Amino acid sequence: SASAISFNTHAPFGDEVTNMKIFFGDILAYDGLPLTEFSYDKALLADTDYTLKVEIITANGLRDYVTKRVVCR
Predict the structure, then answer these.
(1) What whole-number distance in Å separates Cα of residue 27 and Cα of residue 11?
(2) If DSSP codes are grouped into helix, strand and coil, which group holds residue 38?
(3) Which of 19, 26, 41, 72 is 20 to 30 A off residue 49, Cα-Cα?
(4) What's the Rg (C-alpha) of the chain?
């Protein structure tokens, strides 16, 4: 089974994170409310390396993202 990926998100004072998107390469694996933990669906991802991208959007329309190389097996 897949290992869980944990997140901490922060927004400027008076704002809040309202949306999170999680990509494995070009594959959108999640789009919804902010998560603190995510386990990917192994059936969606071939065994290979991916650039994991986590994007957040705040109520005030600010966006930020982070990327990390991950290996799915």
Answers:
(1) 26
(2) strand
(3) 19
(4) 13
For residue range 3-17, list pLDDT tens digits in order: 788 989 999 999 999
| Tokens coding 8 | 């901490």
DSSP tag of 14: T
Listed as own residue / partner, the contacts of 61-65 with beta carbons closer than 8 Å and 24 or more positions apart are 62/11, 62/12, 62/15
Provide the whole-model pTM.
0.86
Q: CB under 8 Å to 51, separation ≥6 — which residues? A: 23, 24, 25, 67, 68, 69, 70
Q: What share of the chain is helix, strand, coil (3-state, %, to 5)?
A: 5, 55, 40
Structure letter (DSSP) for residue 67 = E
Report the DSSP beta bridge partners of residue 51. Answer: 69
As given in the structure block, the two tokens for residue 70 are 């991950």
Q: What does the pLDDT look like over 28-60, one tens digit per residue?
A: 999 999 999 998 877 777 788 889 999 999 999
